[in-house]
Amino acid sequence: MVAPAVLEIAGDALVFSIPDRSGLARLRISVVRTERRKKCVLRELPSDVGRLPLRHVDDYAAKLPSEWIRHGGVFLPLERGSSFRVELTSDLMNGFISFPFAVRIGLGKICAATGEPWRDTFEREPKQNYFVVGPDPVRVDGFPTRYQVQVRQFVAEPLGEGRTVEERIADRAPVGGLQIEAAPLGEDALDEYMCDPDYYDFDVSSDQNTEVYYSRIELGAAKGVPICGGHAVDPFELADWDFARARRCFVHFLSDAEWESTTAG
Amino acid sequence: MDQAKSTPSHCKSEEFGAYLRERREDLRRDGDRRWSLRRVADEAGLQPSYLSRIERRKEAPPSEEKIRRLAEILGEDPDVLLGIAGRVSSDVREIIAKRPRLFAQLIREIRDLPDHAVIRIVREVRDGQW
């Protein structure tokens, strides 16, 4: 029997883990507040300000909107105008090898890998709509631009002012927040990977064809200046991933002041 | 987990009736007739006389299905009400039956842990609709 995946909060990270015959495969997902860039400095990434704490929405149900309870998931504090990134790290199993994960990320249900509306499945065509996490941490700083190694930094903006990416390109009521779905590698592909992990290329590729986005998004924007970005082409086949054990999470954003009043006491 | 309504340490079926009556009377305190014995019995699909005997501890608690319905009507956690009735929900029994040794061991090991430590074992991020 294949052990189910578990998604939980551990410290300032979402942790997606599965018991595996080689140990515990574990993916950490953190949201990190970053320096807000005023001008383009392509060879230098924005510095980190700090990891953002997470709380279960269910623990504060009486103080949060009913829509958030319907979504489930977690929430974190994020101030208007601040920048942030998402960090994906696969822990070493037994101290020597990282378990690969496929991760979809959306901001206001706009895919951070493609810049297009969120879809219900992991896809390779026409564009790969997920990130692949291998031995090195993956950072997702913004939406893609036409330049494969550039993204436009995520910047927090409130909904309802027409400034968000989703309000500009999606024909529906805005939802805001950050959407995550993670899936582990399947058992068969893992066998091959464990034999020769160095064979698999997780480096950022220049073969991605991306679109330009200039809009802001609620609490995660792309009006920021261009910075280094891009993501790796999946070195595995789509069928190699175990989507049956994928887990999802909706991360809601609350202003700093609302966070204090909501989580106090 | 609702701390205020945690199951009493000794769950005897005669306490079920008393608990039920106390809860119903609490809700009825403002004279709200929705919580009269007759109304609650009707809602739950029970004879009023039968519910009265349950409350007066002259009858054992009803079936799991009826206890769940009473919990729904009175705004109670069904697992708590079942616990007071000395029962374990059938879905929980089914889970235990699949791996009886594991769960028996687990429950014995955590029996004296404080609530927050027990919750840590099973706390996962809930995914909803979006």
Would you mind describing this structure in some detail?
The complex is a heterodimer of chains A (265) and B (130). With 265 residues, chain A is mainly beta. In chain A, 11% of the residues lie in helices and 35% in strands. In chain A, strand 8 and strand 9 form a beta hairpin. Mean pLDDT of chain A is 80; it is low at 205-226. Chain B has 130 residues and is mainly α. Chain B contains eight helices and no strands. Chain B has helices at residues 13-27, 37-44, 48-55, 64-74, 78-84, 90-98, 100-110, 115-122. In chain B, helix 2 crosses helix 3, helix 4 packs across helix 5 (78-84) and helix 6 packs across helix 7 (100-110). Chain B is elongated, with a radius of gyration of 17 Å.
Draw up the topology in text.
The complex is a heterodimer of chains A (265) and B (130).
Chain A: E1 6-10, E2 13-20, E3 23-34, E4 48-51, E5 55-56, H1 66-71, E6 74-77, E7 83-90, E8 92-93, E9 97-98, E10 101-107, E11 110-111, E12 131-133, E13 138-140, E14 142-144, E15 150-157, H2 165-169, E16 178-184, H3 187-195, E17 217-218, E18 226-228, E19 247-254, H4 256-263
Parallel strand pairs in A: 6-19, 15-17
Antiparallel strand pairs in A: 1-2, 2-3, 3-4, 3-7, 5-6, 7-13, 7-15, 8-9, 10-11, 10-12, 10-16, 14-15, 15-18, 16-19
Chain B: H1 13-27, H2 37-44, H3 48-55, H4 64-74, H5 78-84, H6 90-98, H7 100-110, H8 115-122
Helix pairs in contact in B: 2-3, 4-5, 6-7
| Largest sheet: number of strands, sense, barrel closure of chain A | 10 strands, mixed
**Number of distinct helices of chain B:** 8
Note the beta-strand portion of chain A.
35-45%
Largest sheet descriptor of chain B: none
Which spans of chain A of ≥5 residues are poorly predicted at pLDDT below 50? 205-226
- Beta content of chain B comes to under 5%
Query: What is the string of helix and strand elements of chain A?
Result: EEEEEHEEEEEEEEEEHEHEEEH
**Overall geometric form of chain B:** elongated
- Greatest chain-chain interface? A-B, 21 and 8 residues
Strand runs of chain A, count: 19
